[in-house]
Amino acid sequence: MASNAGGSSPPSASSPDGRPSSPLPVTNSSPSQPTRRSGGRRRRGSASPYASSPSLGGFETPPHPGRRTPSGAGAGAARQQRQNWAGRFPPTPSTPMSTDDIPPSSEAGDDETDGGGGGGGVDATPVFVWGTNISVQDVNAAILRFLRHFRDPRDAGRVDPVMDEGKYMRAIHRILELEGGESLDVDAHDVFDHDPDLYSKMVRYPLEVLAIFDIVLMDLVARIEPLFEKHIQTRIYNLKSSICLRNLNPSDIEKMVSIKGMIIRCSSVIPELKEAVFRCLVCGFYSDPVMVDRGRVTEPHICQKEQCKATNSMTLVHNRCRFSDRQIIKLQETPDEIPEGGTPHTVSVLMHDKLVDAGKPGDRVEITGIYRAMSIRVGPTQRTVKSIFKTYIDCLHIKKTDKSRLHVEDTMDIDSSNASKSTEEDFLSDKVEKLKELSKLPDIYDRLTRSLAPNIWELDDVKRGLLCQLFGGNPLKLPSGASFRGDINILLVGDPGTSKSQLLQYMHKLSPRGIYTSGRGSSAVGLTAYVAKDPETGETVLESGALVLSDKGVCCIDEFDKMSDNARSMLHEVMEQQTVSIAKAGIIASLNARTSVLACANPTESRYNPRLSVIDNIHLAPTLLSRFDLIYLILDKADEQTDRRLAKHIVSLHFENPNLEELEVLDLQTLVSYISYARKYIQPQLSDEAAEELTRGYVEMRKRGNSPGSRKKVITATARQIESLIRLSEALARMRFSEVVEVQDVVEAFRLLEVAMQQSATDHATGTIDMDLIMTGISASERLRRENLVAATRNLIVEKMQLGGPSMRMTELLEELRKQSSMEIHLHELRGALGTLMTEGAVIIHGDNVKRV
Amino acid sequence: MVGPQYDLVGNPLGAVRATFERTAAAAAAESGGADPVAAFRGKDWGAGDLFRSFLFEQDGLAKVPVLDASNLGLIKPNTLVRYRGMVQDMLGNEYYIGAFKDGSTWRTNKYTDFSPFSMPHPCDSHLWERHLFHCVPAPGQNSWTLESSPGPDVRRMSNCLAPELREKRKRDGDDDAMDVSENGHKESSFCKKPKEGDVHVSSSSTEVAGTVPEMNGGDHHIPGSSFSCLVKIYDMPESQVKLNDVIEFIGVYTFDPELAAPSDNPDDIMLDLMEDVTVQLPPSKVPRLHCLVWGKLSSHDFISRPVVEPSPSLLKGIRQSLLSHLTLVLGNDELAAQCLLLHLLSRLRSRVDVVTVGRLSLNFTGFNKESASIFGNQLYSLIQKLVPYSQAIPLSIDYLNSATLQPRKDNKSGRLVTGVLQLPQGTHLTFDETLLQTGSLTCKGVENTMLLKNLMESQKVDYDFEYYKLEMTADVQLLTLSEGKSNILPSDLVVPFRPSSVPTVNAGAEETESWRWYLATVRSLPQSTEPETYQMIQDEMVSAMRDDRSLGCSELSRWLTMAQIMALSFGEKSLSLEHWHMVKELERLRKQRMQ
């Protein structure tokens, strides 16, 4: 190791984490310092990027390029730096450097060494930063190379003479042109790509390297625009690895770290004195500005005016002093980093100048900064230093991150907008790789099914349907303006105690923007949107309801049957058009409500009556019912097989039985990321074969209704079903992260639909599937029955009664009819039949009497 | 390798330093001058072992006084103490100069806040970290837990220790000088400090003495949630300790009033945010404890009974006596007593997603205000005698509207403000719902009700962290006394209470002791898993479902829980058909009553 500027070679014992703990590093006592310092020149108005105070000791103003002498310029600078940094731990009010330390000077940098003080100096011996193996010249040169020559790989394709300069040179020019920016944001990834060695040095010795960075930058600026007065500060961001707040430890001290967290508190902005101006009370002479050195200002003892020379007459003039802003914020771990049974850690972050007020309490941010520790002085008068240190982070860069709980989706949002490679993208691409791997598993569909509410036993097909809902189909918008929804709506009808509500709760947890409401407590406006008067201004404002709030999510409505009809009717629009239209109180608006509806209802008689149709079981309008893609009946059937499975499920919950619970299941977190990734990035298209299969299957379904020999025409599928089928198969393809909907997806979609239909749309009289049940509420067989009845009644009337003859009582008619036909006929049915005849003009009904006309 | 024998109780730091210096010297010799101390970061160099062997092998534990509110002023700083408390808040890490080079020797500051030697400037040093925990006496801790186990010993101990201490205090200066000369390092600043400290100690001791009787007055709850302790733990991953754990710490009690001195340095105004929370816990109120050895406490640790193999026959006998006592307390209602026994033995066994397995909350219905005051009080005082932590909560509108149930993080002060529901694992809560009148709940009341319901259903408490809620798992037994079935607190098991006599019973101390042991033992018994059992249970469930279609998942699950506890209550590790049938019979009787 070459000779150190301070004259002593760094002791081998000093490890990076050992260094800061020494309250006053050795170099401080270097005898050559004062002279060198006084020989240096300081340019006016060079604001220190890092604040300093006696107790905090943020690091000091980096020395100015102008201070350099040709030989060993870097050395002087670096040593100066080093010495200034020693002020980080000013435990004692120890004698500051001599007062003549800072002779005012308004000159800008006078000379330059070759290549910005790089290794070009012929006679320069390598100079090292104390205690490290960093050669100042090397770093200097490396930084200059980086700034000058780094080109964004993304720009590589562009051939543009103007763009010929490197990314950061352009940035510097921009700063100079706009005169606004005072900082240069440097992406650490770029540094790494350009020079990994420089990156590692920067992370390990940020104080030293950043100071050199600033110097190089100022040199560069001074050469381009010698009159540029402002200090440009380097802000590093986007480190390659970010550390968890909890894992910060003493070895990270004085390193550059990047941590994520949530701001929980901000201090008020504290003005910090940078330059002090004094005025003589005797003669009114204003002194030259005095720089703050390590948090202290030295008041001139004697008035400098030749004629005055009064002693102890100087007083501080506040409004002539220069101040900089500083703020302390408290950063707390984000909830997802807190281990079970722990409480979040916090760390203080020191913000300077422009960074002040960059974040508000509650914001989630990623902070790049230098982790620092400072000793605690016991009292102002005591010399003793406690052995305890306080830690904080000197903030270099702050970046706001997502707020939502669905971090994967949202961080991706940010990334795609930034189009920048960031640490979290690295982290994410990692995650995405994992997800993709998962998606390649042959049993992913089953695995996902198992992972959905694993504690709810059975109901596999229902869970599959719910999965489809979570993944969703592709919304389609035709150029003509017509749009087809991609969201899948599901209705669960079932006996009480069949864990419908639990399923709902689970879905609510899983879906990106889930809203959970209970039908009984929901009003129409509460679900859609309502207009309210602002209590203060009196203006009418539109407030979103649950459906609007769950745009692009799942709206879970429990106790759907207990909802008022009025509220339910609001759902018509939402479920097909996916908008909520409002026209009242001067507001006419149409709000997006691209939401999937998951509703669950109890049968009207609390238990499902298998004798009645779905419509009769749940009092829902068929029009609304038809808008559900899948309707599941969850019935508590007396079935030994299901009972046994339930028993097995309960037992396995209670005993950790390896045989029973060895199913591989995705945890909730993974499942959520999987779904959100698929929803965002996978847009499957129907393949030709799949489309063919879809057509074939649909035709078959339709055919099933008109099987030869059967007189009645049963509708087993409608156009709505084909839309549902497309959505379902798209969702199924998404589950595999497949961009193409394949035949297998279509087949499975048919199966799912059929399972659901079998349960809900089966006409109990005939045992066949009848879409009319859902579309109109009356099955084809029922309709046929009614027609028969009407015919029978007509015959009877023609037979028994004379035209214009005496009337007959309805009960008599009923008796006769019952005698004739084998059918079970109720009075109300007869009344219905007679009603039909009356419209035909065949009979007249007077109360209970029927008269033929 | 016990070197110069230090008084480990009286001067633990001396021992710590001696071992350190010896090990460091040895390491330095070995490594040939390279940094020998770096390896000691986050590690123990033998001091811990020394204390462990002293405490547990040489019976030193009995010599260590227990630190509590009553003797806070009496115990000399820098001595070894024991402290039992619940981790109420975790205050993060603290960095300190762990080791520094004084001339040619390495010194350590571990286990103290102050460097006993002035650190030369500059010097080589190492920054180490330690974890801070704010501990309070476990809420709801019952008085017997203090008397039992180490209790009597320690009481006597501290009683006889006190005069000794006082004597020591007289020759304080000498004492310290001796300590120091023992170390072979005379250090003037060190000698003076403890004296200043002592002045404070005596003043704070009078202050404490003034408040102690009052704090002790509050019935069976441990006095002074106001008495807390700041514990500093070394050399362990923080994840080992969880919030609300009840832990016994053995460590060095330090008292440095200087630390409390508010810094009136005007330069520091801006530092208020940087100030760590310890500032609000002045040493004169909150003693500091540098922990050498620690261990989590289970309910077994409170029981002084000698360790006995829990044989089924022994357990069966105690079960019978406990059951008959419970029956008497419950006015000869045997069904209720059976259910209560199962309830007392229940504990959270596992958590599958949102489902909790093993809990059995109980709701006795049919109480009115009068009977609640008769039976409820009897019942509660019995529970107090049986379980280590218990609380009775009067569930009135007023209470719901005003009580702070939810623990809340105060981001201003950086501390967790405790709530009623911050409880150690295994706490028993008794709610008296007969006090509930019609009335309206405020916003807070609704929130509190939701918290209670959530606790009941999923054994979780949401802690309020201002910007988000953090779910903390809990294991709390909940007993509700109400007029009809409680809807605010939906219990697993609802039993109509039918007393036929008025309880007038008092249990002997010996018996109570054995019951405590029984409850603690049975609750910790492991459960065996045999494939035949699964099959048998499954068959039973299927047939039960066939008989009664109304049986649902939750009911069957509860039956199984009850059957498991039933089996355990007899000391059987595996569930047999017999226990299943006992539970079914119990259920039949209960259902009969419900109609």
Radius of gyration of chain A: 40 Å
The N- and C-terminal alpha carbons of chain B lie at a distance of: 73 Å
What characteristic shape of chain B results from the CA principal axes? elongated
How do the strands of the widest beta sheet of chain A line up side by side? 3-8-9-11-10
The greatest interface between two protein chains, and residues involved on each side, is: A-B, 92 and 92 residues
Beta content of chain B: 15-25%
What does it look like?
The complex is a heterodimer of chains A (853) and B (595). With 853 residues, chain A is an alpha/beta fold. Helix content of chain A is 36%, strand content 17%. Chain A has 26 helices and 27 strands. In chain A, helix 3 packs across helix 7 and helix 20 runs parallel beside helix 22. Chain A is elongated and about 140 Å long. Chain A starts with 32 loop residues before the first helix and ends with a strand. Chain B is built from 16 helices and 17 strands. In chain B, strands 1-3-4-6-5 form a 5-stranded mixed barrel. Chain B has a 5-stranded parallel sheet with strand order 10-13-16-9-17. Chain B has a two-stranded antiparallel sheet with strand order 7-8. The longest helix of chain B is centred in the middle third of the chain and has 30 residues. Chain B is elongated. About 15% of the residues of chain B have low confidence. At the A-B interface, strand 3, strand 8, strand 11, helix 12 and helix 18 of A face strand 1, strand 3, strand 15, helix 14 and helix 15 of B. Strand 11 of chain A pairs antiparallel with strand 1 of chain B, so a sheet runs across the interface.
Keywords:
heterodimer; A: 853 residues; alpha/beta; five-stranded mixed barrel; five-stranded parallel beta sheet; 36% helix; 17% strand; disordered N terminus; B: 595 residues; five-stranded mixed beta barrel; elongated
